[in-house]
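Sharing a chain and its predicted structure for anyone who wants a worked example. Both blocks are below, sequence first, tokens second.
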Amino acid sequence: MLPNKLKIIMIGPSESGKTQIANFISESINIEEAGTPSPTQGVRIVEFEVSNLSINGKITNIDIELWDCSGDHKFESCWPALRMGVHGVILVCSPSTAQAAAREMELLYNYFVSQPKLSTKQCVLFYNSTHENDDMDTLNLSATFSKVSQVSVNLKTGDNRLKKDFSNFVASILQTINASN
């Protein structure tokens, strides 16, 4: 039985563009962010629907609860509550956070994917690049990520590709849940 709503956590280093990605995927507009982005304090939950997903030959719609989590470690004490009941994890990093990203991604993966025993199909890494020549290979990720989908995201030129990548990720989560039932 598929859930009525998916809880998906989006987390990564501070200033990697998580909130911008969350707003784009959910088609949310936050007036406060129209100017200079400000750091998320703890978590911000965005709810929306993804329509017309094909799951095992059936078309379905699913409600999404996207938890846009702060990358600041001062909120680490909240992590147990954040990961409770999670169905999927989006790890986000950017060229500006690439130096520390490999170690940080490993830490976040272990806590939010491995420990709650999620499948690699319930995790995706979004590399939020701002220039076309930004290269994901500079991340030097560990072998842990060899089976995790990695998507290069450019909000300036990405048009609907990011929404399609997100829909594919949601379908992957639902197929994984369906297979385990």
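Comments welcome. Helices lie at 18-26, 79-83, 98-114, 161-180.
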